[in-house]
């Protein structure tokens, strides 16, 4: 079975559009982008396009590559103070001279639609998630939409980043899976992966995961965004061989990526509802 993030995100965006139309709310997402990285620019454009599609107002702040941490924090603070803005997103990665943690912590937890603020990460790890990071949140939606059972399953997450690996592990724990997180210092990565009923790969190496590393019938989720030697976009998983052995698998493109954007739209509406409730 192919887990189509493209199809599910389309479906979710359509229902979100209808919900926003009927809500009487005017949700607004503000994006902050630093520098000229083409991939980051493309992702921000995709986010603004999704906003247009579902009826979320969007505004963009663009800062030069050589900006300082305090200049980024100042831009975020203005958005925190703006009552018409419900969601704030700082596109990552940031240039080397900018303290990413300080910037993430400067976003008001109540507008943190990326779910990266330590408050929201803490809530997630306490089993009371508020804003959930969009990539792992989108993966959970895929599991749900395709009826993939997680309770009691052995899940292996490869990658321990704050934006994907760690929150993914927390979400799987919250869904009663037994979770192992692997990383660059894991002793026998292949042996760990072979045990997985649910394998989530956020390694960042083109087609690294081969058929022999995956258990027969596993559910395989590919978070990788890589380019092969011919410049073609591909994931961490060698899709052609692994798809024959797995029971369900996400493609790249068209798998996890579109779910990231759909979840961001859902988080922004959630924030707009929260702020409207505060006023009533
Ligand atoms: N502030 C954030 N920064 C980053 C995040 C994030 O969630 N918040 N995630 C990634 C990039 N990202 C969104 O920002 C993202 C990556 C990929 C896709 C996507 O839909 N990809 C398509 C393929 C697009 C292509 O042609 O290259 C797909 O997989 O089908 C969406 C969002 C890092 N930064």
TrEMBL record:
GO terms for cellular component: cytosol. One of its GO terms (biological process) is tetrahydrofolate interconversion. SUPFAM superfamilies: Aminoacid dehydrogenase-like, N-terminal domain (SSF53223), NAD(P)-binding Rossmann-fold domains (SSF51735). CDD domains: NAD_bind_m-THF_DH_Cyclohyd. Pfam families: THF_DHG_CYH, THF_DHG_CYH_C. PROSITE patterns: THF_DHG_CYH_1 (PS00766), THF_DHG_CYH_2 (PS00767). Residues 3-114 form the Tetrahydrofolate dehydrogenase/cyclohydrolase catalytic domain. Its EC number is 1.5.1.5, 3.5.4.9. NADP(+) binds at residues 159-161, 225. The keyword NADP applies. It comes from the Archaea. Keywords: Amino-acid biosynthesis, Histidine biosynthesis, Hydrolase, Methionine biosynthesis, Multifunctional enzyme, NADP, One-carbon metabolism, Oxidoreductase, Purine biosynthesis. It catalyses: (6R)-5,10-methylene-5,6,7,8-tetrahydrofolate + NADP(+) = (6R)-5,10-methenyltetrahydrofolate + NADPH; (6R)-5,10-methenyltetrahydrofolate + H2O = (6R)-10-formyltetrahydrofolate + H(+). Belongs to the tetrahydrofolate dehydrogenase/cyclohydrolase family. Catalyzes the oxidation of 5,10-methylenetetrahydrofolate to 5,10-methenyltetrahydrofolate and then the hydrolysis of 5,10-methenyltetrahydrofolate to 10-formyltetrahydrofolate. Homodimer. PANTHER family: C-1-TETRAHYDROFOLATE SYNTHASE, CYTOPLASMIC (PTHR48099:SF5), C-1-TETRAHYDROFOLATE SYNTHASE, CYTOPLASMIC-RELATED (PTHR48099). This is Bifunctional protein FolD. It comes from Methanochimaera problematica. The lineage of its organism: Archaea, Methanobacteriati, Methanobacteriota, Stenosarchaea group, Methanomicrobia.
């Amino acid at each position: 079975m192919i887990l189509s993030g493209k199809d599910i995100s389309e479906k979710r965006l359509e229902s979100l559009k209808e919900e926003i139309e009927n809500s009487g709310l005017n949700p607004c997402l503000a994006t902050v982008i630093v520098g000229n990285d083409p991939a980051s620019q493309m992702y921000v454009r995709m986010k603004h396009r999704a906003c247009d599609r579902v009826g979320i107002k969007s505004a963009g702040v663009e800062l030069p590559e050589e900006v300082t941490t305090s200049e980024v924090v100042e831009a975020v603070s203005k958005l925190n103070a703006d009552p018409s803005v419900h969601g704030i997103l700082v596109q990552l990665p940031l240039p080397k001279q900018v303290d990413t943690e300080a910037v993430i912590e400067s976003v008001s937890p109540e507008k943190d639609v990326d779910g990266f603020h330590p408050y929201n990460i803490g809530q997630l790890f306490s089993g009371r998630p508020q804003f959930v990071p969009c990539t792992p949140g989108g993966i959970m939606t895929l599991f749900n939409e395709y009826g993939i059972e997680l309770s009691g399953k052995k899940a292996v997450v490869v990658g321990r980043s704050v934006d994907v690996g760690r929150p993914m592990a927390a979400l799987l724990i919250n869904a009663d899976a037994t979770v192992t997180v692997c990383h660059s210092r894991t002793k026998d990565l292949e042996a760990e992966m072979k045990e997985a009923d649910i394998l989530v790969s956020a390694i960042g190496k083109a087609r690294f995961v081969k058929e022999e590393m995956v258990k027969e019938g596993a559910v395989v989720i590919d978070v990788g965004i890589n380019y092969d030697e011919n410049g073609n976009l591909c994931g961490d998983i060698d899709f052609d061989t692994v798809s024959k052995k797995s029971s369900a698998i996400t493609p790249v493109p068209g798998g996890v990526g579109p779910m990231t954007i759909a979840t961001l739209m859902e988080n922004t509406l959630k924030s707009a509802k929260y702020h409207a409730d505060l006023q009533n």
